[in-house]
Structure formats: structure tokens, C-alpha cells
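Quick one:
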Amino acid sequence: MSMRVYRTSERLSHRGMVLIAVLWMVAALSIIVTGLTRSVREESRMMSRARQSVEALGLGDAAIQMVLQGMSSRPVQKGRMEEVAIAYRGVPISVQVMPLNGLIDINAAAMPLLIRLYSVAGGLPAEAAEVLAQATVTARERKDSRGRAARFEAGEDLLQVPGVDYGLYARLSGLITADLRGSGKVNPMAAPPEVLTVLAGGNVAVAMHIAADRHAGLEGIDTTALDASVIDSAIVRRFRVQARVPLLDGTWLRVSRTVDLTPRARNGMPWHTFSSSHSFEPVGHKNN
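Output:
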């Protein structure tokens, strides 16, 4: 009798172990299936985002080309920032056109403007801003093998200046250019609000007031609160043209082209694109 009870107990124990093993296998398979499902969903989401990005890039380029066609037919270019609404294939696209002298030219800006750039936009103390401004002038005036000033080839070259780190450059990158050969002064009618703030010595209220009046299309805007020694209303033929394309997830793709509207005698093109970029803009971020 006791042997029979022992064998029964042994069989029950064995069945229990088998059941536990089965449950562990089911749990493991569930984890694997869940992981695979998440992986497939994530890959599907990434593929969808990539497809949207490619389509948005094409739409942005098309909108920019349409705006440039209209600009190339003008006898005289506008010397102020403007927004153009384009509908292409049913997608509403906002295109911003900004003359490049609305930015601070790191190849020609005078010391006072560079100091103000580093102190106001860069957030550096006055003494540090002055030292860095001098280092910037020294870097751009160094001689190359032909005895000419080396110049900065792109805004990113500012990182070569001792004292400019990635954090500082990130704060300045949207305010500067190395693609303009001009007086080194800034056109306030073309400048984004951040540059206007620099010209106003950090007075955000003055900058926003000028930007609002300009956006409203007003003429004769009062710029007397800006430093007159660093502003100029010259007309240039180089522009940053930026299309803002909506994506399905509520974000935006910014497609940017820097162009020269001087006709190219070599190939007959009415404009020349010499730099391009694109970036994603999060939900809720406003276009400058």
C-alpha cells in the first residue's frame, strides 16, 4: 500500500515538473513573440518614417524650385525676409526666403558685432566674448599657401577657433553664415528674431517688435533701437530658402537650400545651389 502511494506521489511530482516546464516554455515563447512583434512594429514605423521623409524631401525641393522660379523672373530682388505659401500635390508648404545678409557673416563681421554675437547669443561674459571675437578675426585672416586670407568655408569652421565648443556653436549656428561676400553688416529687414536680438544688444522686446512689423508687411519700420554701425539695407542675390513640410505624425521636415540667383553663364542655369540640408522639427516648434 505504501509503495503504491509512493509511486502515485512520484507520478504526480513528475507531472508537476512537466507542467512547470511547459509553463516556462510558454512564458519564454510569449516573451519571444512579444519581442518579435515589437521589433516588427518598430521596423514598420521606421520604414514608414523613412518613406515619409523621402517624400517630404521631394515635396520641399519642389516647393523651393517653384519659389526660385518666381524669384528669378523679378528684375529686382526684395531685401527682406518673406514667407511664401505653396500647395504642391495637395500638401500645404510654407517657404521662407531670407537674404543671406540677414545673418552675421563670420568672414566679414567687425569686432563689435562678433563680441555682441558671442555675448548675447552665445551667453559668454563680456571679457570672454571679446577674447573669442579676436580669436575669430585671427583665424579668418590667417594666410594660406598663396598668401591670401584663409576665410571660413562654412559655418561649421567656427569650431576650429580656440574656445568655440559644440555647445556654443549650436547656439550660434542658425545666426551665422560664411557664404556671403559683403560688408559684414546685417540687414535688419532680413534678419531672424535671434539676430535682431543681437543687433538690439539683447533687447528681445525690440527684436520681436521689429519682426512683427516686418511680418505684417509694414514699410518704414523703426530700427533706431538697433546699433546703426552694424546694420545695412543692401540688396544681395544670395538667399537661404527653407521649405517646411508637414509629416503625418505632426512633426515637420525643414528642407533648406542656400542659393545664388546670379545666372550661371557656364550652364545657363538661372540660379546656383551651393549648400543644402534638411532637419526634423518637433511638434509645437515655430518657424522663424
